[in-house]
Amino acid sequence: MILKAAKALAVAVLASAALMASAASASATARNMTESNKTALARRTREVQRAELFRVSRGRMRPNPVVFSRHGIYQHVLQNHDLIIREHTDYFGNAMARMGKFYAERGPEARRAGGSASMESRMKELLRIYDLEPALEKCETLYEIWLAVEESKSAMEALPARAAMAANAAVWASEAFDGNPPESVSAKLEELAVRWSPARNVFEVEKNLKELAEAYAELFAGIAAERGEGGK
Amino acid sequence: MRKALVLLFIAAALCSPAYAEAPAIEKATIELDDRAVVVSADRALLEKIREWAVELEPQEARGRVEDLIRAEFGDGVDVEVFETGRAADAAGAKTIRTTLRAGAMDGLIPPLEGLSAERAKSVLGMFGFASLTAEEFESLTEQGRIRLLAGARSGRVAVIHGADAFDAVVVHLMPEEAGESGGKVAE
Predict the structure, then answer these.
(1) How far is B82 from B35, CA to CA, in rounded Å?
(2) CA-CA distance, B62 to B59, in Å (whole number)?
(3) Over the stretch B58-73, which tens digit does the pLDDT of each residue have?
(4) pTM of the model as a whole
(5) Which chain A residues have a beta carbon less than 8 Å from that of B110?
């Protein structure tokens, strides 16, 4: 009994240490990335604003800002850089905390999930999503800049749920095949783990998550049907 | 001729028990402080057992009621013991109420979102869950529910209320599954 408790404690300590190390390195990287996001947003906004003014005024620079149909967004992107970056960073912190909690609570079997479902892979994906620079480089209008920020926030919002779905599915698949799922199932799990369509708001996030959850359910229903499992 | 008649009479006498109507087996539940016992026997014997159970001292019966029944009424009585406490509330089973989405994300149940009841049952069956719909569970008698909970092969029973992400699912975990000691049913 004591031996068992000691073993469980040792595993918990090791897991926490691994998680803290991972989270600490993610935080350090995030701090730098917050600055680079801020710089990229300011730079790209300036460039795009100039281009937009030039384009909409047919070559004539006007003293007043151009009023667009999406005026609110236009002003917001132009004026509230700090607010946008702070909100964006809040989403990052929230996603990191939720993922850390999930991997800490779900136990070693979830942390053993391989490929894109692994904790390391998810933390890397979080940083990739948090990095606004590549997405901002492609933006041609202020509206697109706003969309890029919203898509990044939505992706960070959904990532812990996707991580939980992927890790749990890997655990269930492992249980179904006695720890050795066939290649076809592993490939499908990997495909589902990285599947994500850009979403700009909570409704699109929910739609994506629903599709993803149903795809996982279909995968297991297919496995059950192949085995001829009947309901009890 | 007389010899033949005697033989016929003997043969008829020997065969008659085979054609006699077997007494109908009925069930009765004896509830004690620490366990419930389902006894299967014919009506007459059940009456005797009932009368005997009324006189039973709780302290004397604690933990050995099945032995006492067998000692008193023989091995022919079918005794099923539910050690999880009072049969009326199937105490001992840990019940978790969640939703299909939340349950799947917590790793409590496999992914079932969007599946029909039959397909969801087949997925749950693959992982050793006993499963049924809310309507099926509601239609069970109290004793039927206890049998279901106690007899679940992996100690997990899922009652599903629908196919939507936020439809309820109630998962009953037996003591072993919930990480507690204690038997379900004494075999």
Answers:
(1) 6
(2) 5
(3) 777 777 777 888 888 8
(4) 0.68
(5) 168, 172, 217, 220
